[in-house]
Design brief:
Largest sheet: none
Number of strands: 0
Radius of gyration: 23 Å
């Protein structure tokens, strides 16, 4: 009985310790974003001055705009390219499929620094001025393989006769694609899009090597500010955490609510 009681306490304690280890730094950062002083270790009172300073900081607002714009644009392009490529791979012969998947895995398995240097040399050799568009192209390049890997499992689960049946019933190839195939693989497409957005939003190494002309995303800006204390970073990070948490709740809760509504109707 004593051993059973210990096991009952051990599992929650272990889980709680792991969660505390992961989320305590984030919680501390959020608390100190409301600190009245510039100190990152000593609490001196509640204040929202760093949030006010954040929205008045033109350089930081420009970095936020650049980050969101590039993340959204690269996600849209990478999701479209990755989905179409995955569908093409699923219809290819085994040898071609394995060859393409091997090539597709290179950007994922390569260290980011290798990809970053390779892209930097590519843009330099083509005499392309580094800036916003080179960063956007780089983000599309390294995000697309993740979309392909997210969509392929859903395509393997798809009944191969479904598209052929749609064509036999008079649908055009594009209608079969967008009305039959895409809706069935949509969970994989959404998952790939979320990964692509996260990868782009969070990237530093590749962005740092392919940018220029004063174009900075949030990661590069935070890096340049890392050697001087600036609590506005805490305010910006707190806002990002709140937005991401809210988005995750919507993504996970809304589908479950719809399922419950369907079950109750039936």
């Amino acid at each position: 009985m004593v051993g059973v009681k210990k096991n009952r306490w051990f599992a929650p304690l272990a889980i709680g310790s792991v969660l505390l280890f992961f989320y305590l730094p984030i919680l501390i950062m959020m608390i100190f974003s409301f600190n009245d002083s510039r100190s990152l270790t000593g609490w001196s009172g509640f204040s929202t001055q760093w949030y006010e300073a954040l929205f008045k900081d033109r350089e930081m607002m420009k970095a936020v705009y650049t980050t969101i714009t590039i993340a959204l644009a690269s996600t849209l392009v990478a999701t479209f390219m990755g989905t179409i490529t995955a569908i093409g791979i699923s219809k290819s012969r085994k040898l071609i499929k394995e060859l393409i998947l091997t090539v597709n895995n290179f950007p994922i398995l390569n260290p980011e620094i290798v990809t970053a240097i390779g892209l930097m040399l590519l843009f330099s050799s083509l005499s392309i001025t580094k800036g916003f568009y080179t960063m956007l192209i780089a983000h599309i390049i390294f995000s697309t393989p993740y979309v392909i890997l997210s969509v392929l499992p859903k395509l393997r689960q798809l009944d191969a006769d479904t598209a052929e049946a749609a064509l036999d019933l008079g649908a055009t190839p594009w209608q079969a694609l967008f009305k039959v195939i895409i809706p069935q693989i949509m969970p994989g497409v959404v998952s790939g899009a979320l990964i692509a957005f996260t990868m782009s939003f969070d990237d530093f190494v590749i962005s740092y090597f392919v940018t220029g002309n004063g174009v900075k995303n949030i990661s590069i800006l935070v890096y340049t500010m890392s050697k001087r204390i600036n609590p506005t970073i805490n305010a910006l990070s707190t806002i990002l955490v709140v937005i991401i948490t809210f988005a995750l709740i919507l993504i996970n809760v809304v589908p479950n609510m719809k399922k419950k509504e369907r079950i109750s109707i039936e």
